[in-house]
Amino acid sequence: MITILAIESSCDETAAAICSDGRILSNIIAGQKVHEKYGGVVPELASRAHMQNIVPVVDTALQNAKVKIQNIDAVAFTQSPGLIGALLVGSQFAKSLALALDKPLIAVHHMQAHVLANLIDDPKPNFPFLCLTVSGGHTQIVFCESPTKMKVIGETIDDAAGEAFDKSAKLLGLPYPGGPLIDKYAAQGDPHRFSFPEPQVPNLNFSFSGLKTSILYFLQNAGQSHVYKEEFLADEASQKKFIEENMNDLCACIQNRIVTILLNKLKKAVLETGIKDVCIAGGVSANSSLREAFEEAGKKYHWNTFIPKFEYCTDNAAMIAITGYYKFLEKDFADLSVTASARANW
Length: 346
Ligand code: KG4
Ligand code: ZN
What we know:
Blueprint: E1 3-8, E2 14-20, E3 23-30, H1 43-65, E4 74-80, H2 84-101, E5 105-109, H3 110-116, E6 129-134, E7 139-146, E8 149-155, H4 161-171, H5 179-186, H6 209-220, H7 236-273, E9 277-281, H8 288-301, E10 304-306, H9 318-329
Parallel strand pairs: 1-4, 4-5, 6-9, 9-10
Antiparallel strand pairs: 1-2, 2-3, 6-7, 7-8
Helix pairs in contact: 1-2, 3-9, 4-6, 4-7, 5-7, 7-8
Bound molecules: 5'-O-[(R)-(carboxyoxy)(hydroxy)phosphoryl]adenosine and zinc ion.
Zinc ion binds next to α3.
């Protein structure tokens, strides 16, 4: 039996998980409320919170899994990409633990792990499969040949899908992270009441920054125009009133546009590759409208669709553990000189 202890600390979640032969025994996440009032993650505060959380989170993961620390076979950790200070906390902790226990160390790529969250539960996709990975920092279509062989075939040229959700939410005066709130308000709204433009981006790439600008102008003109004006059509009070009175519909329309941008590219990727096993992953795959539209597309175009369990969509260590397990099988170990890196190539 191969038992992996995994640590994730790339952004604002301190997480640890235990997996045994690919089965998740525990999955612990400590979120960080401290960022809410700043409207986004403050890197320095994230690093400090990771420092406070990491020991209790790892302890709880071991206890819940009923695994003794001496009995783990390897320590896996998120090496990249992410906030460097946050990554350093997890990586230094993992390296020290591996050294103290004299166990192998496994460096994991966070985006690869999001994809492999689809291999945690049954039914699992068959290789090769496609995965639309949508998070706060990334938007990618990934071609997966095996658990350790993947290629990005499309990605955003500016903002990520999660950023599009969060920045739009900020324009509506909602706190960070706004994605889940847009999801919530959109459930009561009419997704066809206002229309926002779909960007024309070549190949399988995405763009979301134009959408954000269009929403900004639309709100500044209190819904009367999408166009930039020297003098906006509405004063601040009217803009606020427009948002308040139309919050549900605005959220539904913004969400609808983000979801159609994502799905149109995914359809194109399926057509170009001929691959019918299709997954979604990453924080934005928790979005109810994306999940629904994805399942519908699956039925319509005869795809086999896969979505990780809700808790494996947003940042978590179970996905690091499953990736660690496949790397362990290939004896793909890191040595202690490995360093965390904010950016990473595939
Ligand atoms: O994967 P993740 O937890 O962290 C990163 O690696 O970035 O993704 C976080 C992103 C945030 O932008 C958050 O707003 C978005 O996922 N998100 C959602 C929902 N839940 C999380 N966006 C839309 N609808 C949701 N239900
Ligand atoms: Zn993530």
